[in-house]
Amino acid sequence: MRIIAGRLRSRTLNAPAGLGTRPTSDRLRETLFNVLAPRIAGAHFLDLYAGSGAVGMEALSRGAAGVTFVERAPAALSVLRGNLQKLGLSEGFRVQAGSVKGFLQRPSAAEFDLVFMDPPYEAEEEYAGTLGLLGGVAGGWLAPGALVIAEHRSSRGRKEAVEETYGRLRRTRVLEQGDAALSFYVAGLAESGE
């Protein structure tokens, strides 16, 4: 894994050992950030289920104002912190150790312009729970016009891992690349259309 573009371009990153964490591929990250390019400079970025931190570190490299990483697995947290140190990053980020649900259920301490989430593909309840929180009671974490991106398994030939809407979140785009897909959600009005 490497940082693809920006001030940290071509710097390598470590990934947690084993199959418990599946890092977002360089190719999929490049696709993601090609879409986010007009929005990334100065953005407040939330990296949920951060794993190695590669997505959030890419955001920092490309000019995000700040990144908050949320991860609960001790091995992944160790690698994430090691990657930040390896890149020489000492500011512009926060690492929150703990569950995504626990983090989002707290009163919002910030508003994020961009939220990326990449739970284990098999953890369907994590997708529904997290997107449900962001589209509902935890919507205070989202800045006006925020974009929420969920990485999930491609739906080709199988049941979709994510829904079209979650409360105020409405899916506007899906990009599929190999076995992976990115669903983009925009925070809109309440489901009643008010």
Question: Could you characterize what this model shows?
Answer:
The protein has 194 residues and is of the alpha/beta class. It has one domain: Rossmann fold (3-Layer(aba) Sandwich), CATH 3.40.50. 28% of the residues lie in helices and 27% in strands. It is built from five helices and eight strands. It has helices at 26-40, 54-61, 74-86, 100-105, 124-135; strands at 44-48, 66-71, 93-97, 112-117, 142-153, 165-166, 169-177, 180-187. An eight-stranded mixed sheet has the order 3-2-1-4-5-8-7-6. Helix 5 links the parallel strand 4 (112-117) and strand 5. The protein is globular. The model is unreliable at 190-194 (pLDDT under 50).
SSE arrangement, N to C: HEHEHEHEHEEEE
Quick one: how many beta strands?
A: 8
CATH fold assignment: Rossmann fold
**Helicity, as a percent range:** 25-40%
Question: Regarding CATH, which class?
Answer: Alpha Beta
Structural class: alpha/beta
Radius of gyration: 15 Å
Strand arrangement within the widest β-sheet reads: 3-2-1-4-5-8-7-6
Chain-averaged pLDDT: 89
Q: In DSSP terms, counting alpha (H) and pi (I) runs of 4 or more, how many helices?
A: 5
Strand residues, percent: 25-35%
Q: Outline the biggest β-sheet.
A: 8 strands, mixed
